[in-house]
Amino acid sequence: MGLRMRIFNVVSCFFSFRAIAAVAAACLLTVCLSFAASAQAPAPAAADPTLKADPEVVKCIAKGHELLNKMQIDEALKEFQSCVQKFPESVLARYWLGVAYFSNREKDKAINELKEAVRLEPKNLPAMAMLGRAYSFDEKTLAVAEELLNRVLNVCPNFDDARFDLARIYAQKGEIDKALPLFFLLFEGEARFALYHTEMGKIFMAGGREKEARSEFERALAIMPGFEPAKKFLADLDKKPGSGTPSPTPSPTPPATRPPATSGK
Predict the structure, then answer these.
(1) Model pTM?
(2) Which of 108, 158, 163, 206 is deepest in the core (most CB within 10 A)?
(3) CB atoms < 10 A from the CB of 21, how many?
(4) How far apart are CA 144 and CA 29, in angstroms?
(5) What is the total count of domains within the chain?
(6) Averaged pLDDT for residues 144-168
(7) pLDDT tens-place string over residues 44-88
């Protein structure tokens, strides 16, 4: 097996699991976007997840979001499928059904839904970026994925999801000199990554998974030692009876970016 193929297999395998796990926290972007806005230049309106959002569609997909957060993917799929049946022309419904299929490793079905979302709204950047991500897990469609992601970044240079996936594609192709600068740009958003870990920790706390919550708060503090929300929740954990000895501070590795919500009709 050639070096390029070995790189492709390793990177694809690693990031496919990262991407699937990341979907569980997709709804956190609603909270993160306002925080991220202070750390980078504002994105074009096309990337705004609230743009033209139909309240009825948003209400329909809310249950699916909740199930994805709990990693109940089969149940989430049923909810999003129901939404698409009710709102077949909704980009938002098609997008999230595609995300759910992708998280369930049904890549071809994900691509079909995301292609339909892009057909319905050709300039929709989140749908285009997610379609690029789905295409990037097959070496035969890397060129298509690269083209889609570059189109997104040409319009919205601060679209971190697209930047992350494009960097991953370059790594898969063995073009490390192109991949590394993109990753370094992502790592500049320390405040956002600290918030991502803190919000994930809060989800674990709510589910009674205190060990995992502690790990997320400690990751946030490893990235940004003075981040007060993480310090507060970690202190709350320490006050609980039988909380145990804090786990070793993990290395400050940022998580994979999450697919943002998209516009809907």
Answers:
(1) 0.59
(2) 163
(3) 13
(4) 27
(5) 1
(6) 92
(7) 233 334 335 678 888 888 889 889 888 899 999 999 999 999 999
Residues across the chain: 265
Classify residue 131 as exposed, middle or buried by CB count within 10 Å of its CB (0-12, 13-18, 19+): buried
Q: Is residue 36 part of a domain?
A: yes
Residue 133 and residue 160: Cα distance in Å, rounded? 12
Cβ-contact 25, 257 below 8 angstroms: no
Range of the domain at 64: 3-187
Contact 262, 91 (CB under 8 A): yes
- Cα dihedral: 185, 158, 173, 26 (round 10): 100
The CATH number for 142's domain is 1.25.40.10
Tokens of 125: 């950047």
Contact by Cβ (8 Å): 84, 97: yes
Which pLDDT does position 218 carry in this prediction? Answer: 92
SS3 of the chain: helix, strand, coil, percent, to 5: 70, 0, 30
pLDDT (tens digit, 9 = 90+) per residue, 199-231? 878 878 888 889 988 998 998 898 888 888 899
- Nearest Cα residue to 75 out of 85, 83, 64: 64
* Rounded CA separation 90/88 (Å): 6
